Amino acid sequence: MKVKFDEDTCIGMYQCVAEWDAFSKDKSAGKAVLEGSEEEADGIFVREVPDGAELDAKFAARTCPVDAITIYDDDGEQLIP
After folding, report:
1. Any idea where the domains of the chain sit in the sequence?
2. Of 7, 44, 66, 77, which has the fewest CB atoms closer than 10 Å, so is most exposed?
3. In degrees, to the nearest 5, what angle opens at C-alpha 24 toward C-alphas 22 and 26?
4. In CATH, what class is 2-80?
């Protein structure tokens, strides 16, 4: 499972931070940060979801009010949102 995070879309509500510890707050930028990710494209960050963290990742994506977080299965199929 993979997570993609669109930092430019993020509005800094930090609901993802409460749901999954892979996200942290960058208060100076007013955005969340996806820890351990690599920048895939301008402002798009990607990382694998570790075993056991799938539910937390899904909750983080579902709680994002602006759909800045997308979850994909191992086949590349979009699961959330």
Report:
1. 2-80
2. 77
3. 150
4. alpha beta
